[in-house]
Amino acid sequence: MSGKRTGSCKRCGNCCRDFCIDLHVGGVTDYEFTEYMRWLEAHVGVKAHIKDFKGRDVELQISNSCKHLVDNKDGTYSCAIHENKPDICKRYPEEDYGDEISRKCGYRFL
């Protein structure tokens, strides 16, 4: 974690449209890993960033809106299942990820 979270949600919806997943692809050869990366990159809305080639660590950036994201038609967004949304959504963001979403977010970390 980056410290204590301060601020509040701007209701921009960015965190519900784009997200990243850290992935470890173990037990494959260099060729298989390279082909796997090519396959990931072939998908619309997916960007794969190799964090450690030999360690087979990858970060996937996925641009795909949550099916529960509601456009309020006033420049803000909300969650259709806010009271029952997954815990990962309730905790987000847990740190400053240093990405475009974090720079636009209303939350900051001390």
Spatial strand arrangement across the major sheet: 2-4-3
Percent range of helical residues: 10-25%
Poorly predicted regions are: none
Q: Which radius of gyration do the C-alpha atoms yield? A: 16 Å
Q: Report the sheet-strand fraction.
A: 25-35%
Overall 3D form: globular
Task: Return the structural class.
Answer: alpha+beta
Order of helices and strands: EEHEEEEHHE
Biggest sheet, open or closed, and with what strands and sense?
3 strands, antiparallel
Average of pLDDT: 90
Please give the alpha-carbon distance between the first and last residues: 10 Å
> Helix count?
3
In total, the number of strands is: 7
Give a short summary of the structure:
With about 110 residues, the protein is α+β, with helices and mostly antiparallel strands. The chain is built from 3 helices and 7 strands; from the N terminus they run ββαββββααβ.
Helix and strand arrangement:
Layout: E1 5-7, E2 18-24, H1 30-41, E3 46-52, E4 57-63, E5 69-71, E6 77-79, H2 87-91, H3 100-104, E7 107-109
Antiparallel strand pairs: 1-7, 2-4, 3-4, 5-6
Explained architecture:
Helices cover 20% and strands 30% of the residues. It is an alpha+beta fold. A 3-stranded antiparallel sheet has the order 2-4-3. A hairpin with a 4-residue loop joins strand 3 and strand 4. 5% of the residues are buried. The model has no long low-confidence stretch (mean pLDDT 90).
Keywords:
110 residues, alpha+beta, three-stranded antiparallel beta sheet, two-stranded antiparallel sheet, 3 helices, globular
